[in-house]
Amino acid sequence: MDQPLINRRQALGLLGATGAVTALGSLGVPMTARAAGAGHVVVVGGGFGGATAAKFLKRFNPAVEVTLVEASEHFYTCPFSNWYLGGLREMAYIRHGYDELKDRYGVHVVHATAEDVDGDRHEVRLSTGERVRYDKLVLSPGIDFDWDGLDGYDEAAAEKAPHAWKAGEQTRLLRSQLEAMDDGGLFILRAPDNPFRCPPGPYERVSLIAHYFKEHKPRSKILLLDAKDNFSKQPLFMDGWEQVYGDMIEWVGASQDGNVISVDADNLTVETEFGSRHQADVLNIVPPQQAGFIAHRAGVADDSGWVPVKPQTFESTQVDDIYVVGDATIAAPMPKSGFCANAQAKVVASAIVSEFAGHEPPPAIWNNTCYSLIAPGYGISVAGVYKVIDGQIAEVPGSGGVSPRDTDEAFRAREAEYAVNWYEAMSEDTWGTRFRG
């Protein structure tokens, strides 16, 4: 798996070309559409997908009224939360606000929880009791956890064995547990089966926790118990673990008894499918996932727990005038990543603006790049470009690939640098966050 399809220069060149289109805000939206019809769009969720959709609706047609509903005044990203766990960044680095959306683009930001959606009446009910009417609704609800999907693991258990898969207090909790752990302790991470948010995330996480251990608790060990036998960028991760950390990280796939079936959070113990029991000093459980709560309330999720969408526009196949972007959607082969959510949101914004103006939506194209850090100065990546082929979302043949396995330290160092540049550029594009030097 994950063999390079084209060389690095070709991949980055193609991404640059598609990225330039989105950066210009054109996306093929007819100029007449920008000045013509408008309406009221409510966007629920202020992460990569929701904030981008709100911003680009206003960029494509400032006459469109946009209301962004987001419970929190700040959004903490899952990307780069592993850098915080590894001691390489502070939480403030992954915190983003909504001032630019309000002050520069005129988005009406409401800090409340969207509790229900009435698709027939085109209304969203908020935790404040207010009902907000919409012409079009964009949901970017992210993920929620399937608390019935793993025996013994619920919200109470997560306070002892954190998931840290929604960045914020859980991330702080996990880092405090790592700092309190004795040198020579055992850290166990349970990785879920597909699909889940940020496919390379568990593997970058153990990498950067290994970096922290190497610096501060060198006799400690990491056991990664996995519910599957293959994972994103697997050869690159495993090469890097061996090269940088020796035998500190042990990965166990499902067929080798890595599938955790129950959790005893009080005793920081897990049981696997074949009956093995493992006790940790710090236990990190990444549980089964599904589309965020409001997607289910809106009636757009199906029996899989995720949201089917029309490939060209990301409008729900279940309820008219509701569009869904980001991790909640069924959009494979696109991964559940922040970059994809950002790209999907721009396509949704252009589709809505075009429809208001009475035009067909422009052809959609999405791209994705995901960097992972194995250690400071040691980065790897995967990239892909996607479009609709024969009515389905498909990866453009020859468009993507992963970092080469056999390369030098300078290449890995550049990819680590690109990772920082990617994150800061994406954050500015989404929330307007600007970083110092």
UniProtKB/TrEMBL annotation:
Residues 40-143 form the FAD/NAD(P)-binding domain. It holds the Pfam family Pyr_redox_2. It comes from the Bacteria. The keyword Flavoprotein applies. Coiled coil: none annotated. Residues 363-431 form the Flavocytochrome c sulphide dehydrogenase flavin-binding domain. Residues 171-287 form the Sulfide dehydrogenase [flavocytochrome c] flavoprotein chain central domain. Keywords: FAD, Flavoprotein. InterPro entries: FAD/NAD-bd_sf (IPR036188), FAD/NAD-binding_dom (IPR023753), FAD/NAD-linked_Rdtase_dimer_sf (IPR016156), FCSD_central (IPR049386), FlavoCytC_S_DH_flav-bd (IPR015323), FlavoCytC_S_DH_flav-bd_sf (IPR037092), SQRD (IPR052541), TAT_signal (IPR006311). GO terms for molecular function: flavin adenine dinucleotide binding; oxidoreductase activity. This is Sulfide dehydrogenase (Flavocytochrome c) flavoprotein subunit. It comes from Alkalispirillum mobile.
